[in-house]
Amino acid sequence: MDPSRRSTRHLEAKNTPTRSPMDDTFRPLTNDSGRGSTSVTGRTSASESVTSNGASSSLSRDTPLDDDHNSINTNQQRNKPVRIRPTPVLEGKCYEQAYVSHVDHPSAFFIQLAHFEVHEFYSTNPRNNPSEWKRGDYCIAKFSDDDNFYRARIIEVPKGPRPIRSYDVVFIDYGNWEVVNVADIHILLPEFASLPAQAIACSLNKSLPKGDIWDDDLAATEFFKELVLNKHVDAIIQRKTSSDYWPLKFVDLKLSTTKLDIRDTMKNYIQETSNKEIYIRFNHYLTRQDYIIYNIPHEDDDNAADDDDDDDYY
To answer: What are phi and psi of 214, to 5 degrees?
Structure first.
C-alpha cells in the first residue's frame, strides 16, 4: 500500500441514535477518527514492531488471491475459527510515531502501529457468509463513511426477531465501532488474519479523573482528544507489577513533533494516582462487550485462545 495513503485514510465512528451497544459507563459512544500510521525508524518503530511479529511483509499491501487458493482457505475457515492476535508490545519500550486512532477517554484509547489493507480484495471477491454471526467472531466489515472494507469483530448479537439485519462491530485495526448491515459483513480469510490487530488499547499512566468517572469531567476528555487524537505520539509502554491487574496497556505519551509530555500537560485535568488504583476504580465497569472492543482475552469467549498456542491462530 502506498505510504502516503496510510496517512490520509480515516475511520470515523458515527453516532447511531436508535441503537447503541455500549450502554455502559466506561466506554461512552464517541465520534472521532482513526487512520494508519506511517512506519518510521526509531527506538522501536512501527515497522520494527510488525516485523517482530513474524508477519510476512506482503501483508502490508494488497495481495490478490486466485480462485483455487480462495476455495482452499474458505474450507479451512469453515472447519476452524479464524482468530487474530493482539499486537505484542514490549514493556519499557518507546514506540515512536505511533498513531492515536480513537479516544474514549484518557483511560481508554487506541494507538496504532501499522495499517492493513483488505478493501481491494473484498470489494471484488464476494464470499459465502454464515447465516448468522456469533459474538466475538472475527470478520471483514464495510465502514459506512468511506464504503471500504476493514478487519472487524462482532461485539454483540442483537436480541429480537430473525433474520438479523445488522450487527455491532469494532474495527480491530482502529478501535472505533458502528452498526453494520449484515450484507456488508464477510468471512475473514486466514490470509488476512496473520498480522495482529493493530489497534492497541491503552490507559494514560497513573491518571484518573478528578471525579468518579471521566463522564463527570468531559472537559478533560475533550482536552486529551485535542492533544493527541489523529496525531503521532511516542508511546512508552510502562512495566506492570504483579499487582497491576488492569488489562489495558499503561502508557506515557509525548507528541512526536514537539515532544510535549501529555500527562504533564493534563495535570490540571487529572488526579495523579497509582496504576493499581485505576484497576480498583474502573474494573467493575468493564462489560462483556468491552472485552471484545479492547481485545482483552475472556474465559467465556468462544474465540479466546492461549497466546502461546500458535495452532489456534493462522
So the answer is: -65, -25
Residue with cell 506482503: 58
Q: How many CA atoms lie within 13 A of 59 on its CB side?
A: 22
pLDDT at 15 over 70: no
Of 308 and 86, the one with more pLDDT: 86
Distance of alpha carbon 176 from alpha carbon 87, whole angstroms: 17
Average pLDDT value for residue range 147-165:
90
Count the neighbouring beta carbons within 10 Å of the beta carbon of residue 79: 7
pLDDT tens by residue, 27-64 = 654 444 343 333 333 334 444 443 333 332 222 333 33
**C-alpha–C-alpha distance, residues 295 and 196, integer Å:** 11
Check: CB of residue 37 under 8 Å from CB of residue 112: yes
Secondary structure letter of residue 197 according to DSSP:
B
Return the minimum-mean-pLDDT range out of 24-38, 127-141, 190-204, 250-264.
24-38
C-alpha span between 305 and 71 (Å, rounded): 26
C-alpha to C-alpha distances, 243 to 153, 249, 274, 280, 297, nearest whole angstrom: 30, 14, 11, 11, 18
pLDDT in tens, 251-272: 999 999 999 999 999 999 999 9
Q: pTM for the complete prediction?
A: 0.74
Dihedral of CA 88/172/136/122: which sign? negative
* CA nearest neighbour of 189 among 96, 101, 13, 67: 67
The three cell numbers of residue 75 are: 474450507
- Grid-cell match 491503552, residue found: 202
61 backbone dihedrals φ, ψ, rounded to 5°: -140, 170
Amino acid at 91: E
Q: Can you list the pairs that 250-253 forms with residues at least 24 positions away whose Cβ atoms lie under 8 Å? A: 250/202, 250/203, 250/204, 250/205, 250/206, 250/275, 250/278, 251/111, 251/202, 251/203, 251/204, 251/205, 252/204, 252/205, 253/100, 253/204, 253/228
